[in-house]
């Protein structure tokens, strides 16, 4: 069983930055591909960034490419999302997720965090 706890959300002005953290419990964190999703009011769940279990491969949605960076620190059982040049349309609840161990994608999600609110004011 893995528990994921996000932190770092908040209110920021457009053009600002935030760093989200997702701390995982358990001893097998390094085997899980990790990702960040977000859901804005009235919109569908959106996968925005992933990092492979080995840490050598990342993916970004076009909506955040060049502005957001996902990384992981397996020694700390933590995955991060550095968000720069934030826009009002980035306002959403952000969730971290863990995929199937040693899988190449997040097609199947084994664990979800509880979410953290990010609000970007114009």
Percent of residues in helices comes to under 10%
- What structural category arises from helix and sheet content? mainly beta
Radius of gyration: 13 Å
Largest sheet: 7 strands, mixed
Distance between the termini: 40 Å
Unreliable stretches, pLDDT < 50, 5 or more residues?
A: none
| SSE ordering | EEEEEEEEEEE
Number of helices: 0
Strand element count: 11
Shape: globular
Question: What assembly state would you assign to the polypeptide chains in this entry?
Answer: single chain
Mean pLDDT equals 95
How much of the residues is beta strand, in percent? over 45%
What are the key terms here?
globular, mainly beta, 122 residues, 4-stranded antiparallel beta sheet, 7-stranded mixed beta sheet, single chain
Summarize the structure.
The protein is an all-beta fold. It is built from no helices and eleven strands. The mean pLDDT is 95.
Describe this structure in words.
With 122 residues, the chain is mainly β. 0% of the residues lie in helices and 49% in strands. It has no helices and eleven strands. Strands 2, 4, 5, 6, 9, 10 and 11 form a seven-stranded mixed sheet that branches. A four-stranded antiparallel sheet has the order 1-3-8-7, with no helix packed on it. Strand 7 and strand 8 form a beta hairpin. The protein starts with a strand and ends with a strand.
